[in-house]
Amino acid sequence: MLVYSLIMLVPIFWSLGYTVFEGNPIVGFTFVGLDNIVQLFTDPKIGDALLFTLKYAIVLTVGQVLVGYGLSLLYVFWLKKASGLIRTLVFFPVVLPTVAVALLFQALFAIAPQIGPVNSLLNFFGADSIDWFASGATAFWVIVIMDIWRSMGFYAVLLYAGLVDIPEEMFESARLDGASGWKLVRHIVIPLSLPVLFSSIIFSINGTLKVFDSVLALTNGGPGNTTTPLTLYMYQTSFTYGEYGYGSSIALMLTILCLLVTLVIFRSSRRDLTKG
Model-level pTM? Predict the structure, then answer.
């Protein structure tokens, strides 16, 4: 308990203390009260970073959980005992370094000095090449595709563990009653896998709200600040501009956001399970 407190709780309260100061260890700290909190509501970059973070979290959570759930169904109902090799191959991107994955996707979506495979495919079908990293809108989708590819193996295994816990007798009874295919999934698999499904959603939404390394490695928040999430803005504010107090205020806002989202999903899951 003492070790946990030192490792986890002390830095949290230390960071909370910074929110009422401005400055850094080099120039010193000055007490400013709630000025950093007030600045959160007047800083236009916060709005852009918050909007990108929420958009990314929603899109990626839906993508990760849906693709992972589809793969887990494939493992359980179609591949069955032969799924071991496929599970290993799909899980492999999870253990790859983020920088290596980012370099791979930069090459895949490149337009210069060499046209990457994605643009080559577009050219093959008669479409023009796209400079994917010149616009925030297209760069956003490259980040999403990359992170879904990286994480789908993890969520597939997580959901697979939940699906294999469903008693085989439930499936046999449903089949005897005439259920098969989509009916079996809708009336048996989904209701009985709701606990692990909601756990995956909570796990995913909290991870995606704190996205940092993949964005830093792929776009570094650009072009401009169109792909800058709250975490990267917090990092730049604290360690590039030396504003520890304001950076800690951004961290506090992100923490509250994660807690609120988790509470909303947790309460929704409890209500649904009770109805079931």
Answer: 0.89
